[in-house]
Amino acid sequence: MQPEHQGVAVTVLVSVGRHPLTGRARRADQDARGLELALGLEERLPGSRINLLHAGPRSEESESALRGYLGMGAGTGLEHLTLLEQPEGADAIPALAEHLASATPQLVITGARAERGEGSGLLPYALAEHLGWPLVNGLAAVEKVEHGVATLLQALPRGQRRRLQVRLPAIVSVDGAAPAPRQSAFGPARRAQLEATQVAAEMDHPFGEWQMVPARKRPKRLKIIKSASARDRFKAAAAKAEGGSGQVLEGVSSEQGADAILKLLREEGVLPR
Amino acid sequence: MTKMLRRDPRREWIARNRLHPEHASVLREQGEGAVSEWLGPSGVIRKNPRAIGFIGPSGIKRIDRSGAQQGGQATGSSHQAAQDSRRTVTIEAPAFLVAVVPELAGGRLSGHDKDLLGLARRLADADPERPGAVLAVIFGQQKGEGGGELKEQAFGEAGIDRLLHLEDDAYVGFAPEARLAALSTVERELAPRHWLLPDSPLGGADLGRRLALRLGERPATGVWQIESDTEALSGWRCTARGAAESLDIQRPLPRVALALAECAEPVDETRHAAEPLHLMTAVPRALSRIEDLGQVAVDPAGVALAEAEFILSGGNGVKDWDGFHHAAKVLGATEGASRVAVDDGYMARDRQVGATGTWVTARVYLAVGISGAIQHLQGIQSCDKVVAINMDPGCDMIKRADLAVIGEAAEILAALVAKVEQQRGGQRDAA
Q1: Nearest 5 degrees, angle CA A218-CA A222-CA A225?
Q2: Most A CBs within 10 Å: which of B141, B368, B405, B408, as the mutation test of the A interface?
């Protein structure tokens, strides 16, 4: 088989992020992780092609944020970004779905949630439903791509991993478990090109009708004591939290102590088999 | 002569004088000792505060006006009463259904699931004339709760009226397509008015979004509050988190909602039927393009301390560090350390557990030779089970621990390692 046949066509969907403290536009963290994953894939599979795709308005602020992704591709042949230009408040999903349907990449990588706007994390699911492609969420690594089947590692809570096989073309979304993105180089970012095309805009009407306010702190849940007597309520409110319920083994041999610990570990099921 | 009523002024005087040494015995003779309340001459209730109360633990007389007498026993009995006071609610003919798909982490209803069921109850019970029923759709195996308690009871107490239990090999592991096909069948047959799923990474977040798009709905994600709103189509309004937790979006509640933890109070006053329900039609077999090859063994040393499941933590009492590292390897535990061990250079700084290091969330935390400074105990607040091995039976870690063994740390660890290795060797021989 020829080496270029090993390569896969990857499209990375990128968005304009929001710095959590200053609120300024930046490259979004999860999307940058997705691009890092794609760049790692390109190193292992020569002949792979990476395309960056963004749908949204073009402004100075968003352009500098999008160039942050291009700066990551210094020395890897990642030179341009396709920008589907839309006015503010337009729905990105139809435009992206149309573009992907015609471009037919094998693997589409997105971040799990946007850092601006609704940030509902629905976009990969909506694209998968539009295109009829399988979707895998919470990707940690791509192990290999062979014969149109990708072997992926999915991140589970508590640092666990699950191995999945998915038939391409597919959409995968990455979150914080994917490898951390490399730095963005300023020079290549300035030199790279944004290929902007105007696309038909479909306004996202319901989103415009919703009321949006800066997030307020969620109230802390109180410990509610349901008791008829004031004495119980007072005791529950004033009582010092004390353990006291634990079992203490004193004056036992180390063998007996180890037995007790082993029993607990086995009950909890934390020992590897 | 015997019929004549005789007064004894001295005894009356003693009965009035509560400081008199014979006061109590005189009252008892007169039969007034027990009377603490009586109707006075003007029709007012009079109380004798000296006839009530009890002697507290420090020898001082205490009066408990809450009605619950006798210190220690009162709490136990009232807890019993609180548990028994759940009202049993059976909804025979529900006006509508509220479907909930709990995540059932580890086969049990998690705290997040219970909050979600509380939210479902709010939606179902809004109109007492026409109550709805809460339908829970659960996949695969589940365990009962709290020491072999019946599973129906655990589900009923969480507020579930109807229980649809789908058991099939197709739903094991990561099977979003098979689960989605099942939920679509539920939608076709039962047509619930609301769908609620937990917005948690383990299942609800993924499945809920898939379901919403399959049903052609735009779901609300990250919902943390709902309130009734007559203008909205569904009669409810929700507040959802958006834009990386920086926005609160207020919108009418859609049919499918993904809710965060603590979105509502869990059910604690009623007990529901949790009647089993079955689907009339078979779930169509979806051709899956995603194949689950199972969980991968991860190196515990590489797992971030904050999300490790099992942590072996060492402190000042550990003298044999080689043995400690070996034990961590054999037990498959992530290593942690107290501040002293880090300061002395035995462990890296990123392994420090506590307020100044990492706040850990382990399910089992095995503390070896750690006395339990308050900063360290803060760091392990959210651990489920704490096991301590320590020489000093009076230290704070022992008070916090669920199981404490007093003894030499190195010996006990070595014995534990030997047992685990022996057991594994035995399994290998048998296999």
Answers
A1: 160
A2: B405
pLDDT at A210 over 80: yes
* A214 closest CB neighbour out of B66, B247, B296: B247
Q: Which residue has the tokens 């508590």?
A: A158
Phi, psi (rounded to 5 degrees) for B133: -115, 145
Q: Which fold has domain B90-277?
A: Rossmann fold (3.40.50)
Please check whether residue B229 touches A, CB under 8 A.
no
Interface test with A, best of B172, B206, B207 (most A CBs within 10 A): B206
Size of interface A-B (CB pairs under 8 A): 251
Q: List every span in chain B annotated with CATH 3.40.50.620.
A: 90-277
B352 touches chain A (CB under 8 A): no
- Find the range with the poorest average confidence among A56-70, B25-39, B273-287: B25-39
User: What pTM, to 2 d.p., does this model score?
Assistant: 0.76
Whether residue A264 and residue B387 make contact (CB cut-off 8 A), yes or no, is: yes
Q: Which chain A residue is nearest to residue B213, measuring alpha carbons?
A: A126
pLDDT in tens, B262-288: 888 888 888 888 888 888 888 888 778
Contact B244 A162 (CB under 8 A): no
- The answer to whether B217 contacts chain A (CB < 8 Å) is no
Asked if the model's pLDDT at residue A2 lies above 50, the reply is no
Mapped to the 3 state alphabet, what secondary structure does B374-424 carry? HHHHHHCCCCCEEEEEECCCCCHHHHHCCEEEECCHHHHHHHHHHHHHHHH
Residue of B nearest to A266 (CA): B420
Q: How far is A13 from chain B (nearest CA, A)?
A: 17
Give tens-digit pLDDT for B288-342. 888 888 888 777 777 888 888 889 999 998 988 999 999 998 888 999 999 999 9
Distance separating alpha carbons of residues A63 and A52, to the nearest angstrom = 13
Rounded Cα distance, B398 and A251, in Å = 14
Q: Does B212 touch chain A (CB under 8 A)?
A: yes
A133 burial class (0-12, 13-18, 19+ CB within 10 angstroms)? Answer: buried
Would the pLDDT of B91 be above 90? no
Q: Does domain B300-430 have CATH number 3.10.180.10?
A: no
Q: Rounded distance, CA B223 to CA B116, Å?
A: 10
Strand partners, B135: B99, B162
**Looking at chain B from residue 53 to 112, which residues have their Cβ under 8 Å from any Cβ of chain A?**
64, 66-68, 74-75, 78, 82
CATH of A3-209, one of 3.40.50.2300, 3.40.50.2000, 3.40.50.620, 3.30.300.20: 3.40.50.620
In chain A, where are the structural domains located? 3-209, 230-268
Beta strand extents in B229-289 (DSSP E only): 236-242, 247-252, 256-259, 270-272, 275-277
ipTM score of complex: 0.85
Residue in the block written with tokens 């004193």: A250
